[in-house]
């Protein structure tokens, strides 16, 4: 493992956190790509508002992925975010590439945000159990943003009341 830039955590905990961070990195990168897939292809009533929202959401997700990746490196690991690693490691259901209706994209994205949000909440628990408060706090920050963006996207659903 490369040099760590923290003290007070044993190597085993750092290894475990790096693995956890890389698993979440794959999920958030996959989610970012799903958001961009929708952004590029959606059509229908309310297009411009949802199109612009998805650009903002993708930018926030990119910031989260950067924070996650940097934490892995700070802990003495390597950030693993290539297309090949993400394709192999992400558990998020593959995003449909043949849909265009805003309503279908909203539902597909909402489902994936809820799924990734659950993964990140489990990462909070794992980091807490390992005693890495900083990594748990990072995951908490990411979780809050994913939940907020799930709300922003889901509020565009005709099913939303």
From TrEMBL:
PROSITE patterns, per the entry: DPS_1
InterPro entries the UniProt entry points to: DPS_DNA-bd, DPS_DNA-bd_CS, Ferritin-like, Ferritin-like_SF, Ferritin_DPS_dom
Keywords (A to Z) from UniProt: DNA-binding
Pfam families reported for this sequence: Ferritin
Signal peptide boundaries: none
Residue span, Ferritin/DPS domain: 19-155
Domain of life: Bacteria
Molecular-function annotations in GO: DNA binding; ferric iron binding; oxidoreductase activity, acting on metal ions
Family statement: Belongs to the Dps family.
PANTHER family xrefs: DNA PROTECTION DURING STARVATION PROTEIN, GENERAL STRESS PROTEIN 20U
Protein known as: Starvation-inducible DNA-binding protein
